[in-house]
Amino acid sequence: MLLFAGVTVSACVLAGLAALFGGAWPWLAAFYLTGFVFLMDRLIPRVIRNTDPEAEFPAATPLLALLGLGHFVLLGLGTWAAGGPSGLAPAERVLTAFACGLVFGQISHPVAHELIHKPNRMLRHLGRWMYTTLLVGHHASAHLLVHHVHVASAADPNSAPRGENFYRFALRVGRQSFLAGLRAENRRRRNASNPGLHPYITYVGGALATMAAALLIAGPTGLAALLAMAIYAQLQILMSDYVQHYGLCRRTLPNGKPEPVGPRHSWNAPHIFSSALTVNAPRHSDHHVTPSRPYPALQLDPSAMPCLPRSLPVMAAIAMVPPLWFRMMNPRCDRWQPVDATSPETRTDAVGIV
Question: From CA 18, how far away is CA 14, in angstroms rounded?
C-alpha cells in the first residue's frame, strides 16, 4: 500500500504544484508521468509477486477515496492554470494541462474504475462523478453493464477485434459505448421496482454543469482547457480498453453463448511502477474473473494470462503506430486464441507466451 500511495499521490501533488506555481514544476510533473515511469519500469526487476488473494487491505479504499476527492481539486486547478488568469507562461500552461491530463487518464480513470465496482453507494457515486467531470460519465454504466458482461465478444464495443487499429476503434467506440450503456440502463430500470433518477440525466447534466463551472472559473479559455484535458483523458481511457483487450475473444459454446470470462481474455503487464501508478490496472485478467477483488490482491500468472511485451504505457504509445502494433501483437493474439472461435480446441503453444 505504501507503493500505491507514494506513486499516485506524488503524481497528483506534482501536477498540483505545476498548476499553482509554474516554473520547473510543470516540467517535473510531465517528466514524472512519462520518462520517470518508463525508467522505473525498466530498472525495477519484473518479479511476479502475488499477495494472498483473500487478504484484506484496510488502507486500500481510503486511498481510492483520497485520490477521488483530489481529482476534483486538480481538475479545478488545472482548468484555472491552463486557461485562467494564473499568470503562467504559454509553455507552462500547455505542460500543466498535459500533466493534469495524464493524471486524469492514468490515475483518475483507474481509481474511478475501482470505485464504481465498490458495494458502498457513496463510493460508487464518487467514481461516477469522476467520470462525469471528464465528460464521459456513461462509461460507468457501459463498463459495468456491457463491458463486464460481453467482454472479448462482438457484443462489447470496447473489445477491439484483431486487425482493428486504435484510430478506427476510437472513432466508433464513443458512440457505441454511450448507446450500449443507455440501452443496458433502460433494461435495468424496466426491471427495477424503484429505479430513481436515470443515471444518464446525471451524466449529461453533470457534464454540462462541469463545463459551466469551467466558464465561471476561467472564461472561454478555461472551458477550452477543460475540454482539452477531458478529451485527452478520454483517449487514454479508450487506449486502456484497446490495449488490454485487443484481439482476444471468447469462443462460442454449442448453445450459442460465449464461454465464461477467463484469464485468457485480457492482456496484462507485470511492470511494478506503472502498475502502482494505475492501481494495478495492468493485472486485468484477474479483475475480470473476480471483479470484487481489491486491487492490491489482484493476481498475475503469465502461464495462464496473456502478457504484453512491454509495459502498459509503452504499449499505448506503440498502438499509435498501427503497423508496429500489428507486427508485435497479432502473432501473440494468434497464440492465445482458439484455432476457431467457435471450436472448443485451443492452441497448445499459447501457454507461457509473454
Answer: 6
Which backbone phi and psi does 239 adopt, to 5 degrees? -65, -40
Whether 50 is in a domain gets the answer: no
Answer yes or no: is 51 within a domain. no
Nearest alpha-carbon partner for 30 in 43, 42, 19: 19
Interval 223-261: pLDDT, tens: 999 999 999 999 999 999 999 999 999 998 999 899 999
Q: Which domain holds residue 234?
A: 2-45+57-350
User: How far is Cα of residue 150 from the mean position of the Cα atoms in its chain?
Assistant: 17
Number of domains the chain is built from? 1
Domain contains 143? yes
Q: In whole angstroms, give the CA distance from residue 71 to residue 18.
A: 15
Domain contains 265: yes
Q: How far is residue 26 from each of residues 18, 19, 81, 91, 264, measured CA to CA in Å?
A: 4, 7, 11, 9, 40
Q: What tens digit of pLDDT does each residue of 123-178 get?
A: 999 999 999 999 999 999 999 999 999 999 999 999 999 999 999 999 999 999 99
- Which residues are registered as beta bridge partners of 252? 258
Radius of gyration of the chain (CA): 20
Measure the CA–CA gap between 216 and 120, rounded to whole angstroms: 33
